[in-house]
Amino acid sequence: MCKCQGRRAKCHRWLTLLSGLVESLLVTGIAFGWVSLVFVLKADGYFAGYCDNVTREEDYAVYTDCSGQDEHLSQVMSVASIANTLLRFPIGYVFDRCGTTATRLIAISLYTTGTLFITLSNAETSVLLYPALSCLITAGSTLHTTNVQVGNLFDSYRSTIITIYNGAFDSSASVFLIIKLLHERGVSLHSSFLFLTLCSIFLILRTFFLMPTGHIPYLLPEIYTYGVSCPGQRKGRGEGEEKRVKEEEEIKGNKKDEREKDENIQHQPKQEEAASFRSCVLSWLFLWHVVWVVTILFSHFMFLASLNPTLTRLAKDNQTLVSHYTNAFALMQLSGMLFAPVNGLIMDRHKHRPLVPGETKREADLHSSFLALFLTSLQCFLFCVCFTCPVLPLQYLTFILQVVNSAFFYGGHQAFISIAFPMSHFGKMSGMAMSLSALALLLQFPVLHLIQHQLNGDPLYVNVGVTLVSLLTFIHPIHVSLHCRKLSKQRRTTQKVNEQGLARCLM
Predict the structure, then answer these.
(1) Distance, CA of 42 to CA of 39 (rounded, Å)
(2) I need a surface site. Which of 116, 384, 429, 455 has the fewest CB within 10 A?
(3) Residue 424 has what pLDDT?
(4) Please, where are the H alpha helices in 255-360?
(5) Tell me, what DSSP letter sits at residue 223?
(6) In degrees rounded to 5, what are phi and psi of residue 221?
(7) 474-485, pLDDT tens digit by residue?
(8) Are the C-beta atoms of 388 and 467 separated by less than 8 Å?
(9) Confidence (pTM)
């Protein structure tokens, strides 16, 4: 009977994992394929009223200037990115407080609203794109946050699974490429988004059958059940988790003397679990992580908001060439799922070796994250350098670096938060970092206005500035490395003191 239940639980967990991948590929990051959708929106005449006939002074030729249309379409992405980051903290609070089901139902409502807005929109109601994309990007990020905890079901590959989900999150941007290709073959934008609206049925079914009402704990209890068939999970805590808590209380009562002897090992994890949300937010680990997140996010959103006009300028308004490069970028985004697990494997590379005597699991995980954070910072810098160079063929390399960096960034961000801080604060900490990014993302509006009106559409000087700012990201991995060295030094000092004390007692 136990073997049968074990196989059923294992099958349930794999279904949760695989259905989450399907959800991530279909829904979570589709808004980041905005560059492909812009091409369709332009063809359907969205914001076309901002195009003007202008006479060129050199040869008095009349041409159509659509810089106003480009500016509005860029602002749609900017508004959506700011709305997403602002709402991440309150949604993270809801996730920690109310659990998975409540959070996912909010996300599904936003997703359905966003797809319906675009389904019902047309060139005359172009303004609906502002709330529509904001709903889509927020819903996708929220669903992704609830999916991250699935990694807790597979302890040995926890960071790897988190990064695989982040890779699927990035690859889902190719959904808008598929819509673009279908549009070129006669399928209307409204039909494509009506299909996406119907996908919300799958999201609802997965929410109730393959996800917990509360949270998936870490570390996972020996007996853990979740889903609609588990009444004990309705209040946010599984029967297995309650049993684990009772067992821990018995162990604490029966082995008090052993705990006192090993106090130097157990004391630190206990403090970490009891750490308040305020102390976590004010820690240097989190503050430098916020700088890291803000800088990388700003670089990526500036790239996404300005890519279409940049390609148009470099291609000298050759729309066939612009379409080719847009498709190339979208296809490269699809490969994000291939690169993301590399970051997870880097962070999990220590899981199959024994811990150093006195080393905590959290300290080992934190030390392992240094390399992943450093590589992400290096990728961001190289990506900014390539995008700054006004050479059209070089943008292929820019696309590759952007996709790889995005896959490393989102996976690294979620994995680092889950490692460095208590899981009870995961939603709030992850959301807080993203919400603080909104302050920096507000700079997109004056920056885009500066490029369009003061720099005549040439973003060279702005891109140079963004490249220099990206150097700030290297501070975070350096600080993590120094913090790990400090913990290691404290551990060795404590062990030495304990050994000296034990030697005195034996004498």
Answers:
(1) 5
(2) 455
(3) 76
(4) 256-261, 263-274, 277-281, 284-314, 319-334, 336-347
(5) S
(6) -65, 160
(7) 999 999 989 888
(8) yes
(9) 0.69
